[in-house]
Design brief:
Layout (H helix, E strand, L loop, with lengths): L7 H32 L3 H26 L5 H18 L6 H29 L3 H30 L7 H17 L14 H14 L1 H31 L4 H28 L2 H26 L3 H19 L2 H7 L6 H30 L1 H22 L8 E4 L15 E4 L15
Antiparallel strand pairs: 1-2
Helix pairs in contact: 1-2, 1-4, 1-5, 1-6, 2-4, 2-7, 2-13, 3-4, 3-6, 4-13, 5-9, 7-13, 8-9, 8-10, 8-11, 8-13, 8-14, 9-11, 10-11, 10-14, 13-14
Amino acid sequence: MFEILSDRTYRHLFLAQVVALLGTGLATVALGLLAYDLAGDSAGMVLGTVFTIKMVAYVGIAPVAGAFADRVNRRTLLVVLDVIRAAAALCLPFVSEVWQVYALVFVLQSASAAFTPTFQATIPDVLPEEARYTRALSLSRLAYDLENIVSPTLAALLLAVMASQTLFLGTVVGFIASAALVVSVMLPSPKASAPRGIYERTTRGIRIYLATPRLRGLLALNLAVSSAGAMVLVNSVVLVRGQLGLGESALAWTLFAFGAGSMAAALVLPRVLDDLPDRPVMLGGAVLMVAALLALAFGIAISGLSWVLLAGVWVLIGLGYSAVLTPSGRLLKRSAHAEDRPAVFAAQFALSHACWLLTYPLSGWLMTALGPVPALIGLAALAGLGVIVALRLWPAGDPAEVAHRHDNLPLDHPHLQGHREHRHSLVIDDQHPRWGAKF
């Protein structure tokens, strides 16, 4: 897996991702402390609003940004967005009102909503070979999991010697370092597609996404991921501190169990995906998450909750979580040409976070109103629904390429390039917004 770091461009981009993630992790800790300083016992409401603003920015801004990403030099765009994020983080230590926090978080997360899909769409252009790109996806998943472990630890060490608001300076350093690493390499910027109207450009990524069977299946699997993930991220504190009466360190180790499962899957997936198609691996991961949720509900109902049982189930959910998310970039790469990748990656970014926007509050409400067993069963049912829908929408014989004809296109159409019949790494139907061709 690590041999792809010999590629200088990818190595710098990967390091940019790592330092930006560490900065974001420090900001998460600092925001919680800042919310308590400003709102006291109402800090939970402030943080809930902050996370809602984050999701709204992700869902609303990403498709718009993706629509125009191919009109701007990618390196310039990524650097400008990093600078905007650094500027917003630099202002956060000086706020005195809650509304100022909300405004700055919206600016920061809007820049992230434009940065992340553009960054993700650049990697397959840097590493066009699928085997190398698969290893890059696993490294990216590993970086996200390590951030969940390293950032809180680093924050704890820094808080021992400095004030909480200075953590935001670490965030600023992370974003500036990310910008410097992006500047240090030349990035491919595929040729822009033909001029289109605002509506066409803004909705193009989502229309391509929803017209491609394998991506419709991916959207259903995103629902399964967000259902299981929301149970872990929202309710771990309730299960560990409230149900089991354990301390903060036990909560940290519980979340570590989830991250460890995800990291283990990320490490073995490149070899697995060399031998198996994406579909059975991703569906198997989703089924594993459903089974783990139901097993925990059954265990609690029969013999009560124990920390060993909880940690073991979280490891299994982490395995399934990574098994679904890690190969998803391969599907997106396979389903769009280079000039459309930012828009398609932005569509995945927005639609997947729309699933989280549903499951975050649902998970909290089910746990609060009904208790752990109904919450686990309810979220398992929603995740299971995602698996069933994915099975129906994503054909079992989904090929990487589909032979087709463009008989209804004019002879001078630039896409034909002198050929009436050719192949594309797209799964398209007769309503596909890019072609509109029957075959």
